[in-house]
Amino acid sequence: MLRLDSVRIQNGSFELAADIEIDHGSMVAVIGPSGAGKSTLINAIAGFIPLWSGNVLWQDQDLGDRQPGKRPIAMLFQDSNLFPHLSVVQNVGLGVSPELRLTDKDVDRIHGALDRVGLSDFCDETPATLSGGQQSRAALARVLVQAKPLILLDEPFAALGPALKHDMLDLVRAVVDDIGATLLMVSHDPSDARRIADHVVLVAEGRAHPPQPTAEILDNPPEVLQAYLGTG
Amino acid sequence: MAYRARAITPPLRPWAGIGAAISVAALVFLSFGAVILRAEGWSGLTLVEWGALRFTLLQATLSAAFSVILAVPVARALARRQFPGRRVLILLLGAPFILPVIVAILGLLAVFGRSGWISTALGLWGLEPIRIYGLHGVVLAHVFFNLPLAVRLILQGWQDIPAERFRLAAHLDATPYAMWRLLEWPMLQRVLPGVAAVIFAICLTSFAVALTLGGGPRATTLELAIYQAFRFDFDLGRAALLAVIQVALAGTAAWVALRLARHEGFGAGLDRPVQRWDTRSPTLRVQDSIAITCAAAFLLAPLAAIVARGVTNLSGLPASVWSAAGASLMVACISTGLMLIIAVPMAAALTSGRRVSVDLAGVLGLAASPLAVGTGLFILIYPVADPAALALPVTAAVNAIMALPFALRVLVPAARDVVAGHGRLALSLDLRGWTFLRRIFLPRLRPQIGFAAGLCAALSMGDLGVIALFADPDRATLPLQIYRLMGAYRMDDAAGAALLLLCLSLSLFWICDRGGRANAPA
What we know:
The complex is a heterodimer of chains A (232) and B (522).
Chain A: E1 2-11, E2 14-22, E3 27-31, H1 38-46, E4 53-58, E5 61-62, E6 73-76, H2 88-93, H3 104-116, H4 132-146, E7 150-154, H5 162-179, E8 182-186, H6 190-196, E9 199-204, E10 207-208, E11 212-213, H7 214-219, H8 223-229
Parallel strand pairs in A: 2-10, 3-8, 3-9, 6-7, 7-8
Antiparallel strand pairs in A: 1-2, 1-4, 4-5, 9-10, 9-11
Helix pairs in contact in A: 3-4, 4-5
Chain B: H1 15-38, H2 47-80, H3 86-93, H4 101-112, H5 117-124, H6 135-160, H7 163-171, H8 176-204, H9 208-213, H10 222-231, H11 236-260, H12 282-313, H13 319-349, H14 356-367, H15 370-381, H16 391-428, H17 433-462, H18 466-470, H19 478-487, H20 491-517
């Protein structure tokens, strides 16, 4: 279980409070108006933004003292999820060993992951030669081999077209199921949430609201969400 | 609850870079300290010292003024004309930076000297040959080196004028004169003081030019006076006094220059002329053609002269030239290695720091007169060891420090981009410290490291500065050996050796730069 215990994040006049629990194995979409702090919330959980107060706990363990790379988290950012000078295999391999010290077993796992995302023919290519969708697949293959129990997505597919994005979300669901992980995914598109998420965390008016079942909140959106969705 | 926001640890810790910076600063300030403590004769500056100060300021002022004034029409022509060879010409404008000074001087002598091309041509009409030694020779050489720099900086100013403004002006049917008054003159008013100040500061500390073309009571710069006090009188007290004056002067000038000149790049993005509608008149066309042709001839003729004269003498070079070339190559390699050991960790440390430190490095680079640092090091070394025996290592170290500001200017922006672009991803994958350095930082920075190494290697290869203070007759770098050949009036050997030096410098630069860029992904 992921627990944000009286978390407050402050940066100048920006402020975000979160006091929520997310069950193990759930798939959660984080939605809300632009600038409300969806990305900030995800980045704070990952350890990139310091907390003003409160604690982030995973399975009742405080993550506050851990470096981002030491947290049980695999994350995809909005962009640059691959190192341009490394091959696809190396990029995925970093998820197993940052020093790229790979045993034969590791290499097999990496190729298995690339196979799983449909990139087995592109192992030795560099990211520049891949299409946008293929780059996303490579990054997902890395998430797969990282096999961390918590997966955070900060809108990594925002630049893809609708059909491709849907493919990616389906692939994300498959990857999350494979690992048995918990997913937190920032999105500004409610249809993403409907497609993949069982719960929604609404971030608005300086607060991250507790998760609610997706259909429930999207069918009867609260006022602040109505304004954002344009259904009000 | 109490504030307990924890800073996020960057993928690279700055300690190595801070250590490197402190070592460099310690070395520079130790030598300055030694110079200050050793300086004698504060009570009365003699006429000689006043003369050196006056001449230093005069030649730097004239050099800056001529470089800037002559650069304006050239930059203007390059900004608004598209012609075959334009890119090559702009690339060539960067070349004087890595051109050994002594080579350029031999080239200038071959063109403007007493028996040079121009004097010979004048002689055909029974006219007196022109005289290159003295003030006008020093200024001529400085303009040769700094005109290209001025053109590049001013061209940058032209290109910073948004294309939309030219379009709007054209839409309003502005004449070339109106265009000048509305857009170009205001830009120049903003840009020129900075350019002039940078060139002024560079010319203050130039040594090799004054050594070869100046001299005598009426054409001695402070830098040269330090050398003379040292070599001819072995008057360390007076050399130190001159060094103190030089450092104060150059430091002030460098500080002013960096205040006035905000950006001084290496000419990125200069190969794009602005589309203009007001430049079709034949008069302007002729005017621009003349500006470009004259500038190209002025820059290329001395190089052509060196190549022409050197080629025939390359095979019969004395053994001393080859051993000096070997020494120079060694110095260049050591100094490049040293520079990288200092500059790369500094660049890594500066990815999270403020700009102040980079600016400081820039001031030190412009201000640190090689001969002043050299004098300080000599004072420090003299009691414990034979300075001549350490001539080559000291030269390599000073060259590395002199190249450092330029290297940082190349490395730091790229290093910042690497950390800004990949830092979070690296951290999320637990790539930190040595692993981050080896897997991400160095590979991503390779093109810039290659370029910086090339600059340092070429600068070091062609440097004629500290070595002149330290060397005894048995030891020389190639530039010093060329100077000795010139002093012995062996001009053919000097020309051959100069061509060798030119080839070696350019090759070193090319190898490093190429090595950095080969197979580098975009």
